[in-house]
């Protein structure tokens, strides 16, 4: 089972300017294509309720799981409040081989702190926010290996493995 974080970040490490900004409003066409390809390959995406609120629907071709303490009544959405390891166990039993953790900072941080993340796909976009929502919001001490990087358009696509 491969658990990965997928995120677009500004060149100064932010995932958004503010909590209600859709994550796609400032990202490149190349990143949208990359996100679609990688998450469809996994078949299951996990996000927090605030990120979901900026999307508002299930994404086609992917099981969409939303973390919330209140059930979300939208077609195709499964709401959860399971601990990361429990959710992963459930998805493994359902036959998934990869899980895409799609944000926001609360969900990225919760999965990273749970020690279940294997790798990160980061798209570095050529923008600077100066302030905003960071990729992670708690202290972490994680070492990674750079597996791949590629320039597409004006974006850098990097894949890291946690060591
Ligand atoms: N650049 C990118 O790639 C990217 C990707 C994703 C998101 N984002 C950005 O990230 C921002 C949102 O991040 P965020 O941290 O504010 O919100 P978030 O992680 O999307 O969602 C937080 C919500 O998840 C629910 N939640 C969290 N932990 C839970 C648990 N253990 N059990 C049950 N529910 C739980 C709670 O919802 P309830 O209050 O409903 O209980 C909480 O309010 C947005 O600006 C978005 O655009 C950027």
Task: Tell me what the structure shows.
The chain is built from 4 helices and 10 strands; from the N terminus they run ββαβαββαβαββββ. It has one domain (2-162): Dihydrofolate Reductase, subunit A (3-Layer(aba) Sandwich), CATH 3.40.430. The longest helix has 14 residues, at 29-42. The strands form 2 sheets. Strands 5-4-3-6-1-7-10-9 form an 8-stranded mixed beta sheet, sandwiched between helices. The protein is an alpha/beta fold and 163 residues long. The radius of gyration is 15 Å and the shape is globular. It starts with a strand and ends with a strand. Helix content is 25%, strand content 34%.
Entry summary:
By secondary structure, the protein is an alpha/beta fold.
The helix-and-strand class reads alpha/beta
**How is the quaternary structure best described?**
single chain
The helix/strand order is: EEHEHEEHEHEEEE
Instruction: State the major sheet.
Output: 8 strands, mixed
Q: What fraction of residues sit in β-strands?
A: 25-35%
Total number of helices: 4
From the N-terminal CA to the C-terminal CA, the straight-line distance is 16 Å
Number of domains: 1
CA gyration radius, whole angstroms: 15 Å
Per the CATH scheme, the topology name is: Dihydrofolate Reductase, subunit A
Number of strands: 10
Q: What is the highest CATH level, the class?
A: Alpha Beta
Overall 3D shape: globular
Averaged pLDDT: 96
**CATH homologous superfamily classification:** Dihydrofolate Reductase, subunit A
Low-confidence stretches: none
Biggest sheet: strand arrangement: 5-4-3-6-1-7-10-9
**What is the second-level CATH architecture?**
3-Layer(aba) Sandwich
Bound molecules: NADP nicotinamide-adenine-dinucleotide phosphate
